[in-house]
Every structure is written in C-alpha cells, then in structure tokens.
Amino acid sequence: MLKCRDIERMAGQLQDDELNWRQRFSMRMHLMMCHHCRRFVRQFAAIKKLAERSVSEQASDDEVQSVMDKINDPQKG
Ligand SMILES: [Zn+2]
C-alpha cells in the first residue's frame, strides 16, 4: 500500500503520464481513502496547468489568484 509520501512523489509522474497501470491503480486506491492526498493531487494539477500556460501565454492575475486561493484555503476548492 502506498504512503502519502509516495503519492506526493508520484504526483508529477502522474501528470506527465509516466506511471504504468499498476502504479495508477495503487495511487487511485490511496486517493479514495486519503483526503489529504486528494487535495494534494488536485492542487498539484492546478499549479502545473498554470505553469504550463504561463510559458506559452501570460496567465491573468485572476487565474493566478484563483490557484493561490485554493492553496491557502483548500476547503473552498
Ligand atoms: Zn495520503
């Protein structure tokens, strides 16, 4: 069974499609049980999306703010 630490390490690989089905399955099982990691993965995805956008085009202040709000106050998210 994966630990929270493993999920944090694998989050980047998940976004980059570097995990095989077995790793994805293990990760999904953990996310079903672990509220902390669900939040972590969601925030990770939001940040990465924003980072990719800001390379090709300028992210608006509103977009940056909405991600920062999610990080500062995950309950809203
Ligand atoms: Zn966890």
Helix content: over 70%
Approximate shape: flat
- Number of H- or I-type helical stretches: 4
Total count of domains = 1
What ligand species are in this complex?
zinc ion
List the secondary-structure elements in sequence, H or E.
HHHH
**How many extended strands?**
0
- The amount of beta strand, in percent, is under 5%
Tell me, rounded to a whole number, the average pLDDT.
85
Q: What can be said about the biggest beta sheet?
A: none
Radius of gyration: 14 Å
* Category from helices, strands and their pairing: mainly alpha
Task: State the distance separating the first and last CA atoms.
Answer: 27 Å
- Uncertain segments are none
Notes on the protein architecture:
With 77 residues, the protein is an all-alpha fold. The chain is 77% helix and 0% strand. It has 4 helices and no strands. It is flat and about 40 Å long. It starts with a helix and ends in a 5-residue tail after the last helix. The model has no long low-confidence stretch (mean pLDDT 85). Residues 4, 7, 30, 34, 36-37 line the site of zinc ion (ZN). Residues 4-38 form the Putative zinc-finger domain. Residues 55-77 are annotated as: Disordered. InterPro entries: Anti_sigma_zinc_sf (IPR041916), Znf_put (IPR027383). This is Putative zinc-finger domain-containing protein.
Which short descriptors sum up this protein?
Anti_sigma_zinc_sf; binds zinc ion; mainly alpha; 4 helices; 77 residues; Znf_put
